[in-house]
Recover the amino acids of this structure.
C-alpha cells in the first residue's frame, strides 16, 4: 500500500511542513502515478486527525496535451470554474511531482506556456496558494529521476529520503547568524572564474526555509533591489518549461539582462522575451542542504545545493518583494562562487569562511 519511507515523509509533510490541524482542508495534488503510495499515506494520516483531503491525481501526458492546446480563454476558465474556487477553500496544499520524464513539456510553445502561466499558475498558485495556504511541493523518486542524478535507482532512493528527511530544526538554528548578517548588508558580490556580479539587498526581508514549503529544503532567500544588479553570472545545468540548458550565462546592466549565451539560445531568448520582468531578477538565495551536492536537472533539489546561490529571473515573492512582476520564475543556480557581504569574504567557494557561519558547512550540519 505504501512504504515506511512514504509514511515517514507523509508525517513530516503534515506535521512539520504544512502543520495541518484537525478539521482543516488540504489539497493533495499528484502529477503522475509513481507517487501513489505517498498519496495513500497522506490521505490516511489526514483522516486520522479528522482533516479533509481533496485528492487531485493528474496524468503528465494529458497535462502536456492541454498545455499544447490551451489558450488564454481555456486557462482562465479552468482557473475560474475549478481550481481557484477550490484553492480558496484550502488551508493547506501538498503538491507531488511524480512525472518520470522531466522533458515531457519540451515541445510546448512560448505562447502556450505564457497563457498557462499568466491565466492559471499566477492566479491559482502564486496569488492564492502561495499567499493563503500552508503549502509544500516536492518531487518523487523514480528510475528516470535517478538517471538525471547519475545514480543507481537504489542509491538515488536513499539519497532522496536522506535529503528530504534531513534535520531541519538543526539547519534553522545554524541559519540564524547568516540571517542576522544579511539584514545588516547593503551589497552582495558573487565572484569566481566565470562570474562577477553585484547587487544591493539593503532593507530587504530575508526568509529562512527549513522544510516548510519545499521538500527537500534548505535555503535563505530575499530579492535584490531591482535596478542594482550589475555584472555577469554563469549558471549550472537547468531545465525550464521542459527545455534543457547545459549552461546559461547572463550579462546584466542596472538590473536588466542585456546579453546572454547558453546551450539553447533560441529557447532562452523566448523565455527572456516572455515579458518585461523576465529579464529582471525576483529572488536571491543561499543553498544550504548538506546532502545535495551536484545539479540533477531538478530545481527543487538544485536550488538547495550546498555552496550555491540562485539569482532568479522573473517574478518576486510577495513575502520578500522587490516589485518585479513576470509570468516566469526561473531559479537558475550558480555553484561555488566566492560570496562577499559589503566586501567581506564570507564563503570561499562552497565553504563558509567566517567563524560565526561555519555551522552551515556540511561537516557541521551532518555531525551527530
Amino acid at each position: 500500500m505504501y512504504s515506511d519511507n512514504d509514511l515517514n515523509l507523509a508525517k513530516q509533510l503534515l506535521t512539520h511542513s504544512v502543520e495541518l490541524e484537525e478539521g482543516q482542508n488540504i489539497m493533495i495534488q499528484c502529477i503522475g502515478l509513481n507517487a501513489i503510495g505517498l498519496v495513500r499515506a497522506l490521505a490516511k494520516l489526514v483522516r486520522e486527525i479528522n482533516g479533509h483531503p481533496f485528492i487531485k491525481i493528474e496524468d503528465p501526458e494529458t497535462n502536456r496535451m492541454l498545455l499544447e492546446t490551451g489558450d488564454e480563454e481555456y486557462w482562465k476558465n479552468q482557473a475560474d470554474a475549478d481550481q481557484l474556487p477550490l484553492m480558496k477553500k484550502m488551508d493547506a496544499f501538498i503538491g507531488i511531482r511524480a512525472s518520470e520524464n522531466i522533458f515531457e513539456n519540451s515541445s510546448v510553445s512560448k505562447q502556450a506556456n505564457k497563457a498557462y502561466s499568466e491565466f492559471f499558475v499566477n492566479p491559482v498558485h502564486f496569488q492564492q496558494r502561495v499567499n493563503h495556504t500552508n503549502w509544500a511541493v516536492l518531487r518523487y523518486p523514480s528510475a528516470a529521476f535517478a538517471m538525471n542524478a547519475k545514480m543507481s535507482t537504489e542509491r538515488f532512493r536513499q539519497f532522496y529520503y536522506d535529503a528530504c528527511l534531513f534535520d531541519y530544526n538543526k539547519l534553522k538554528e545554524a541559519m540564524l547568524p547568516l540571517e542576522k548578517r544579511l539584514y545588516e548588508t547593503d551589497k552582495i558580490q558573487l565572484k569566481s572564474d566565470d562570474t562577477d556580479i553585484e547587487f544591493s539587498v539593503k532593507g530587504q526581508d530575508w526568509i529562512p526555509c527549513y522544510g516548510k514549503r519545499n521538500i527537500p529544503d534548505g535555503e535563505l532567500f530575499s530579492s535584490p533591489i531591482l535596478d542594482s544588479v550589475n555584472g555577469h553570472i554563469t549558471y549550472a545545468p537547468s531545465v525550464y518549461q521542459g527545455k534543457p540548458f547545459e549552461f546559461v550565462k547572463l550579462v546584466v546592466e542596472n538590473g536588466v539582462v542585456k546579453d546572454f549565451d547558453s546551450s539553447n539560445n533560441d529557447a532562452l531568448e523566448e523565455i527572456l522575451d516572455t515579458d518585461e520582468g523576465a529579464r529582471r531578477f525576483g529572488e536571491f538565495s543561499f543553498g544550504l542542504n548538506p546532502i545535495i551536492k551536484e545539479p540533477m536537472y531538478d530545481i527543487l533539489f538544485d536550488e538547495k545545493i550546498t555552496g550555491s546561490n540562485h539569482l532568479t529571473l522573473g517574478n518576486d515573492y510577495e513575502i520578500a518583494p522587490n516589485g518585479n512582476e513576470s509570468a516566469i520564475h526561473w531559479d537558475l543556480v550558480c555553484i561555488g562562487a566566492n560570496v562577499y557581504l559589503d566586501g567581506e569574504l564570507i564563503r570561499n567557494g562552497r565553504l563558509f569562511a567566517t567563524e560565526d557561519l561555519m555551522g552551515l558547512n556540511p561537516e557541521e550540519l551532518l555531525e551527530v
